C-alpha cells in the first residue's frame, strides 16, 4: 500500500465531497459522521464529477442525473447508474487524510 496525503481533514465538509487529484486519479473525499471515504470522482453512468454533488445518508449524488453512490461500497443505490465506482483505502493521520490509490476496496478498476 502506498498512502499519499490527499487533504486536511477539516477541508472535508459533511454535505459535499472534496475533489482531489492523486497521481493519475481524480478522487472524491467525503465524510459521513466521523468516517471518511475516498471514491473515484466520476459517475459510472456519465462522465460527471461526483464531487459536484451533495453528500447525505452515507451516499454521494451525481448532480446531473441523480444517481446516488454508497460511500462505503461505491455501488449505485438508484438509477440511472448501474455500475459501481472504485473505492480506495483511507487513513486519517492526525489532521490529515491519506489515500491509497494503488488499491481498491471493492475490486473496481478506476477509469
Tell me what the structure shows.
This protein has strands spanning 3-8, 18-22, 25-32, 35-40, 55-56, 59-61, 68-70, 87-88, 90-93, 96-100. 39% of the residues are buried. The mean pLDDT is 96. The strands form 3 sheets. Strands 2-3-4-8 form a 4-stranded antiparallel sheet, with no helix packed on it. It has a 3-stranded antiparallel sheet with strand order 1-10-9, with no helix packed on it. Strands 5-6-7 form a 3-stranded antiparallel sheet, with no helix packed on it. The protein is mainly β and 111 residues long. The chain has one domain: Rieske [2Fe-2S] iron-sulphur domain (Rieske Iron-sulfur Protein). It is 0% helix and 40% strand. Residues 4-99 form the Rieske domain. Keywords: 2Fe-2S, Iron, Iron-sulfur, Metal-binding.
Topology:
Elements: E1 3-8, E2 18-22, E3 25-32, E4 35-40, E5 55-56, E6 59-61, E7 68-70, E8 87-88, E9 90-93, E10 96-100
Antiparallel strand pairs: 1-10, 2-3, 3-4, 4-8, 5-6, 6-7, 9-10
CATH class: Mainly Beta
Estimate what percentage of residues fall within beta strands: 35-45%
For the biggest β-sheet, the strand order reads: 2-3-4-8
Our count of domains comes out at: 1
Instruction: Provide the low-confidence segments as ranges.
Output: none
Largest sheet: 4 strands, antiparallel
The CATH architecture is: 3-layer Sandwich
Number of helices: 0
For the record, give the distance between the C-alpha atoms at the N and C termini, rounded to a whole number: 19 Å
Radius of gyration: 12 Å
**Pairing-aware structural class of the strands and helices?**
mainly beta
